[in-house]
Amino acid sequence: MPKKDQPQGERLQKVLANAGFGSRREVERWIEAGEVVVNGEVATLGDRVTPDDRITVRGKKVGSWRLKEQEHRVLIYNKPEGELVTRSDPEGRPTVFRRLPKPKSGRWIAVGRLDINTSGLLLFTTDGELANKLMHPSQRIEREYAVRVLGDVIEEKLKQLVNGVELEDGPARFEDIVESGGEGSNRWFHVVIVEGRNREVRRLWEAVDLKVSRLKRVRFGSVILDSSVAAGKWRDLEKKELEGLLDDAGVPAGKTGRSYASPKSRSKPVPKGKKKRAAKKSVWRR
């Protein structure tokens, strides 16, 4: 391995995560457990490697081609209700990964999750570093949801939700609430959060004694779920969308040090007029 005073290559955990072996946290746990060997020696956190190094992960040899910089892809997927965001399910329930194309290298990494009863926009990428940046709380990337709420939605409760309520894992709030339709006991809203906590949107409404009957994510950062992607379908991000997403992650386009694949010919182009949400009735903000 390279000497400490002459660092070469990339950090081991970053290389293995980008190659699709797992998240960076998973790889770091394997390294700490002594399950990664480089050039015959047990690796430690902070080690740097190049494609010329001999690496074994959990007893399996890593091909040198997997250590070289690959062309990455980023997909948008429209998740239907009833699918799990996991690679396999002991109960045999359908997962989102069964519908995705096989990447040339690495593996698909989901940017965040949606629960089984939530539909809508999911992003997948083969770039582990980009996925980590997009999911990191410090980026405060907006997630927008269309939500149908059952119950008596009075203005006081909406003000509570934008000012903040206490959940079991700490305070939380909506950045924005826009009423977008419905009548009687079922009303539709568009809400925005900047965290990715488990079931956060549902738990926020439950905190003010209201029930979510439908939930769909319609935007992640600058990427909007439009009519070009039907439920259960995917497409590669277009160039402008990818540039916007990289900017969301704090990585200006052209300065990533990595390359991304161009959209496949079978992918549908982004419509000139993106799908607009329902006309605003009332807006609640902090």
Automatic annotation (TrEMBL):
<dbReference type="InterPro" id="IPR000748">
    <property type="entry name" value="PsdUridine_synth_RsuA/RluB/E/F"/>
</dbReference>
<dbReference type="InterPro" id="IPR036986">
    <property type="entry name" value="S4_RNA-bd_sf"/>
</dbReference>
<dbReference type="GO" id="GO:0160139">
    <property type="term" value="F:23S rRNA pseudouridine(2605) synthase activity"/>
</dbReference>
<comment type="function">
    <text>Responsible for synthesis of pseudouridine from uracil-2605 in 23S ribosomal RNA.</text>
</comment>
<comment type="similarity">
    <text>Belongs to the pseudouridine synthase RsuA family.</text>
</comment>
<keyword id="KW-0698">rRNA processing</keyword>
<dbReference type="Pfam" id="PF00849">
    <property type="entry name" value="PseudoU_synth_2"/>
</dbReference>
<feature type="domain" description="RNA-binding S4">
    <location>
        <begin position="10"/>
        <end position="80"/>
    </location>
</feature>
<protein>
    <recommendedName>
        <fullName>Pseudouridine synthase</fullName>
        <ecNumber>5.4.99.-</ecNumber>
    </recommendedName>
</protein>
<dbReference type="GO" id="GO:0000455">
    <property type="term" value="P:enzyme-directed rRNA pseudouridine synthesis"/>
</dbReference>
<keyword id="KW-0694">RNA-binding</keyword>
<dbReference type="InterPro" id="IPR020094">
    <property type="entry name" value="TruA/RsuA/RluB/E/F_N"/>
</dbReference>
<dbReference type="InterPro" id="IPR042092">
    <property type="entry name" value="PsdUridine_s_RsuA/RluB/E/F_cat"/>
</dbReference>
<feature type="compositionally biased region" description="Basic residues">
    <location>
        <begin position="265"/>
        <end position="286"/>
    </location>
</feature>
<dbReference type="GO" id="GO:0003723">
    <property type="term" value="F:RNA binding"/>
</dbReference>
<dbReference type="InterPro" id="IPR006145">
    <property type="entry name" value="PsdUridine_synth_RsuA/RluA"/>
</dbReference>
<dbReference type="GO" id="GO:0005829">
    <property type="term" value="C:cytosol"/>
</dbReference>
<dbReference type="InterPro" id="IPR018496">
    <property type="entry name" value="PsdUridine_synth_RsuA/RluB_CS"/>
</dbReference>
<dbReference type="InterPro" id="IPR050343">
    <property type="entry name" value="RsuA_PseudoU_synthase"/>
</dbReference>
<dbReference type="InterPro" id="IPR002942">
    <property type="entry name" value="S4_RNA-bd"/>
</dbReference>
<dbReference type="Pfam" id="PF01479">
    <property type="entry name" value="S4"/>
</dbReference>
<keyword id="KW-0413">Isomerase</keyword>
<dbReference type="InterPro" id="IPR020103">
    <property type="entry name" value="PsdUridine_synth_cat_dom_sf"/>
</dbReference>
<feature type="region of interest" description="Disordered">
    <location>
        <begin position="248"/>
        <end position="286"/>
    </location>
</feature>
